[in-house]
Structures are given as C-alpha cells and as structure tokens.
Specification:
The protein is mostly helical. The chain is built from 1 helix and no strands. The longest helix is centred in the middle third of the chain and has 46 residues. The termini are far apart. Keywords: Membrane, Transmembrane, Transmembrane helix.
Length: about 50
C-alpha cells in the first residue's frame, strides 16, 4: 500500500509540473504571436 501511494504522489507531481510547463509554453507562444501581430498592425497604421 505504501508503494502505491508513493507512486501516486510521484505521478501527481509529474502531471502537475508538466501541466505548468505546457501552460507556460502556450502562454509564452501566444504572447509572442500577439506582440508580432500588434507590431504588424502598428506598422500598417504608420505606413498608411
């Protein structure tokens, strides 16, 4: 029983850490794309 609980806590920590990493990557990529998109709109406004 002790082995199962330790395994469960290990999986829980791995899942939570991977979830935070994936969430951070998605957030970073979205901010990057949004900044490029905003810069593109700003350049279009300046040129026109």
């Amino acid at each position: 029983m002790q082995n199962i609980t330790s395994l469960f806590t290990f999986y829980y920590r791995a899942i939570t850490s991977s979830f935070f990493v994936i969430f951070f990557l998605i957030f970073y990529i979205n901010c990057h794309i949004f900044s490029h998109f905003f810069f593109y709109i700003k350049m279009r406004i300046i040129t026109h």
